[in-house]
């Protein structure tokens, strides 16, 4: 396991964007960033995770992760790959039903290559902006106070909540996460961006036929 929380200094030359779940649709993502005039020499793109499964271009995930301007937290679908390739602890049929067939059908050595890279992804990121520190996780913040997140992520229960929970969205919980300007998450596809308290849900289903990728300018929240 890599760093639990990765910190990024303020971008002094360009813009910082966050994008929702990608699920193997990198061509669509490329089109989306081109539409906002993304400049890879100055701008950065932060992903809420779930780079893989369900879409036809999941194998491109490693190429994107090698780009100096693209950064991601781990999602539950990266967790599937990690647990299967490095620990053999996945319900195979469940994984396949949830889009993991492309991974299960690869040679084990190639699976391990993905697993090792995904296992270095942090559970959370912190990005400095002009308005304050923006946090990012895949699904939900497992603590009410961001200052306690690092300690909490030392437990399996908190890590599981960070990549699997839909509780905040299901309850429309507007309780703010303290000591952080905003928290950006994905995981649950929605039609439009929703802010609950200071938690912003941005998975607008760019991987779905009827969805679209939201590129959230972190300076705008």
TrEMBL record:
Residues 73-78 form the Serine/threonine specific protein phosphatases domain. GO terms for cellular component: cytoplasm. PROSITE patterns: SER_THR_PHOSPHATASE. It comes from the Bacteria. InterPro entries: Ap4A_hydrolase, Calcineurin-like_PHP, Metallo-depent_PP-like, Ser/Thr-sp_prot-phosphatase. Pfam families: Metallophos (PF00149). One of its GO terms (molecular function) is phosphatase activity. PANTHER family: METALLOPHOSPHOESTERASE (PTHR42850), ZINC-DEPENDENT ENDOPOLYPHOSPHATASE (PTHR42850:SF4). This is Serine/threonine protein phosphatase.
């Amino acid at each position: 396991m890599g760093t639990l929380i990765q910190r990024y200094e303020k971008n002094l030359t360009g813009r910082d964007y966050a994008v929702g779940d990608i699920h193997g649709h990198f061509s669509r993502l490329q089109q989306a960033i081109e539409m906002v005039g993304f400049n890879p020499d100055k701008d950065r793109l932060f992903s809420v995770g779930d780079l893989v499964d369900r879409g036809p271009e999941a194998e491109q995930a490693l190429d994107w992760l090698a780009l100096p301007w693209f950064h991601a937290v781990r999602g539950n679908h990266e967790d599937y790959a990690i647990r299967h390739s490095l620990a053999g602890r996945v319900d195979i049929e469940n994984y396949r039903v949830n889009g993991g067939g492309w991974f299960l059908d690869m040679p084990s050595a190639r699976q391990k290559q993905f697993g090792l890279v995904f296992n270095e992804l942090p559970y959370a990121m912190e990005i400095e902006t002009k308005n304050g520190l923006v946090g990012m996780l895949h699904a939900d913040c497992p603590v009410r106070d961001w200052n306690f997140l690092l300690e909490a992520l030392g437990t399996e229960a908190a890590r599981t909540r960070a990549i699997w929970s839909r509780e905040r969205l299901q309850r429309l919980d507007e309780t703010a996460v303290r000591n952080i300007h905003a928290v950006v998450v994905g995981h649950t596809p929605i039609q439009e961006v929703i802010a609950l308290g200071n938690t912003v849900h941005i998975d607008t289903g760019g991987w779905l036929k009827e969805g679209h990728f939201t590129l959230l300018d972190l300076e705008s929240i």
